[in-house]
UniProtKB/TrEMBL annotation:
One cellular component (GO) term of this entry: plasma membrane
A GO molecular-function annotation: transmembrane transporter activity
Spans through the membrane: 33-57, 63-86, 98-117, 123-144, 165-186, 192-211, 237-263, 275-293, 305-323, 329-356, 363-385, 391-413
Name recorded for this polypeptide: MFS transporter
Length: 421
């Protein structure tokens, strides 16, 4: 994810105002808002479709847990590349000119998934998915902001924030739920979910095509440059705390979108694909809900809540694995998801406040880059470790390392002035 949380997989830059909004009346923009929300949710959901299916791939082609994490890491690499090279271009060329190719990439990935279950094809399909998601997240978020503003001039941004969070982080949870249910009760578990989402992606492309553009076409084509990335904004402790918190939050998201379904099937002896999808859904659903419900809290309060919830959740999750208690594992996952969602939102708020307006996108790009390393590196590390040690032992180590990281975030945050909001 999110990725996703965005994400969650919540990978999104603060949207900039459009230079112009096309004429057509508020009603068209209101309908467009709903259409883009649908396309956004579908694109993010597709990115996590393989999550509950990984154990089936492992049985089909003899994959190890390590190779599952490599496949997952390939997706994260695709997202990072896309965010840096293309995620910011809709401000110049238009939202639809980025969204349509992005959805096209995801549709191409769906076709690849349908052609083969072999490792090389999976790697390419996940890379292509990541490239599409990196283009979708920032662009769809900005498009929703534009459409909301055009539809309801002067209104509160609350609707935009709720819908964009639900589509982004919530979508990351919907994908595994739908895929898990289909894999459990419909024939062709490694084909049917992709057929369903291929149809939804086609519908999403139509939805984007019908939506008003909200960025004026530039009179002269601006020179291309990648997204600038910056990590130094005058408050090293503040940025370091936010970056470490982003890394920790995405480590939890990465755990549930890569190896957690395998742990449920193996260590906890519950092989149901529907159950695996449901677990991921409730974790990301909890993250999205918590982000929405804590919108009015100060950044410092969000950070404190996120740290405590993530700590309690991860400890409970590992306790569930050690005792073979599925309920404890699920409760721990939900609480950890709440913590990760709120903590990452606090990180975005901290970095946005630290950076000067002209450098805000560069600062957030730096935060997202570090966060995506959190999505990738711990998951791969878990995969490597499970080749020599039991899943329960490896998860205990993961929890210990994460708790050290959370303590570091708290210590760094105490070294800077209290956040105002």
């Amino acid at each position: 994810m999110a990725q996703s949380v965005s994400a969650l997989h919540q990978v999104q830059q603060l949207p900039r105002p459009s230079r112009a909004v096309t004429p057509g009346g508020g009603r068209r923009h209101g309908i467009g808002f709903a259409l883009i929300a649908f396309a956004f949710l579908t694109a993010m959901a597709f990115s996590t479709v393989p999550t509950p299916l990984y154990p089936l791939y492992m049985a089909e082609d003899g994959f190890s847990t390590f190779m599952v994490t490599v496949v997952f890491a390939t997706y994260a690499v695709g997202v990072i590349i896309s965010l840096v090279l293309a995620g910011h271009l809709s401000d110049q060329f238009g939202r639809k000119k980025l969204l349509l190719p992005a959805i096209g990439l995801e549709l191409a990935a769906a076709v690849l998934f349908l052609t083969s279950t072999s490792l090389p094809v999976l790697l390419v399909a996940r890379l292509v998915t990541g490239l599409g998601v990196g283009m979708v997240t920032a662009t769809a978020t900005a498009h929703l902001h534009d459409l909301h503003t055009a539809h309801r001039p002067g209104a509160s941004a609350q609707r935009f924030e709720l819908v964009s969070t639900a589509a982004n982080i919530g979508g990351l949870g919907v994908g595994p739920l739908v895929a898990g249910v289909l894999a459990q009760w419909v024939t062709g578990p490694l084909r049917t979910p992709y057929l369903v989402f291929a149809a939804l992606l086609l519908a999403s492309a139509v939805a984007v095509a019908l939506t008003p553009e909200t960025v004026e076409k530039p009179r002269t084509r601006p020179a291309y440059r990648p997204q600038r990335i910056s990590v130094d904004h005058g408050d090293r402790a503040g940025f370091s705390a936010a970056a470490a918190a982003g890394f920790a939050s995405f480590a939890v998201f990465g755990l549930f979108t890569s190896v957690a379904p395998g742990f449920v099937a193996g260590s906890l002896h519950h092989p149901s694909r529907a159950l695996a999808g449901l677990i991921v859904f409730v974790v990301f659903g909890a993250a999205a809900t918590a982000q929405s419900l804590t919108a009015r809290l100060s950044t410092a309060a969000k950070r404190t809540l996120g740290l405590v919830a993530q700590l309690v959740g991860v400890v409970t999750l590992v306790a569930g694995m050690r005792t073979g208690d599925l309920t404890a594992f699920l409760v721990g996952g939900v609480v950890a998801g709440i913590g990760a969602g709120v903590l990452f939102k606090a990180s975005v708020g901290t970095v946005a406040a630290l950076a000067a307006p002209a450098q805000r996108s560069e600062a957030l790009a730096g935060l997202f880059l570090i966060s995506y390393l959190g999505l990738t590196l711990p998951a791969v590390g878990i995969g490597v470790a499970t080749r020599s040690f039991s899943a329960v032992t490896v998860m205990t180590w993961f929890a210990a390392a994460l708790l050290v990281l959370l303590a570091t975030v708290a210590a760094l945050a105490r070294r800077r002035p209290a956040d105002a909001g």
